[in-house]
Amino acid sequence: MQPKKFTGKLIAIDMYNCGVNEVNDTEKAKTLLQEGCDKYQMNSRELLVCQEEGQSEYSISALCKQGHVTLHVYPKLGFIAADIFSCYDDADPAGMARYLRSAFDCDKAKITLLDRGDFGSKYDMKPNHRSNIKFIRRTQNVTKNVGAQLKKMMLKPRGI
């Protein structure tokens, strides 16, 4: 028996050099977020603003039907890290991402897309990127060879 198919979309956006008016005014940012949720069928149920006293940084979360939109705002840097998640069929998370880039007037954005809920094999769950780090084996022969090579490089005159 196959598990029920679940598909959710997660979009992470790093927005750089955002508009000063948009990031410095918590109420304006909250209004822009609510307008986007309404326009792109995210169906916001509640908006929460978290800001520590004396701090300029703040977060705004829109709790939505089968998802959320969260903005982490750094006014001094003009930077916003946004997360959009939805598994609601009528929602348009990609449209919401385009709206946020435009509404917060950013110069540059880095966007990462992730499909959630893939119930494929456990091998499908590995990340797409791999590290290019090569490990040195701890055997006597390899250690001697590496030591000899390093010694040669260190003792070789620079002109050669």
UniProtKB/TrEMBL annotation:
Name the InterPro entries on file.
Answer: AdoMetDC_fam_prok, S-AdoMet_deCO2ase_core
Task: Tell me if Lyase is a UniProt keyword of this record.
Answer: yes
**Which GO biological process entries does UniProt record here?**
spermidine biosynthetic process
In its UniProt record, a GO molecular function of this protein is: adenosylmethionine decarboxylase activity
What are the entry keywords?
Autocatalytic cleavage, Decarboxylase, Lyase, Polyamine biosynthesis, Pyruvate, S-adenosyl-L-methionine, Schiff base, Spermidine biosynthesis, Zymogen
Cofactors demanded by this protein? pyruvate
Which Pfam family is an annotated match for this chain, by its short name? AdoMet_dc
Any keyword Lyase?
yes
Spans traversing the lipid bilayer: none
Q: Please provide, in alphabetical order, the Gene Ontology terms of the cellular component aspect for this entry.
A: cytosol
Q: Which PANTHER family match?
A: S-ADENOSYLMETHIONINE DECARBOXYLASE PROENZYME
User: What protein name does the entry list?
Assistant: S-adenosylmethionine decarboxylase proenzyme
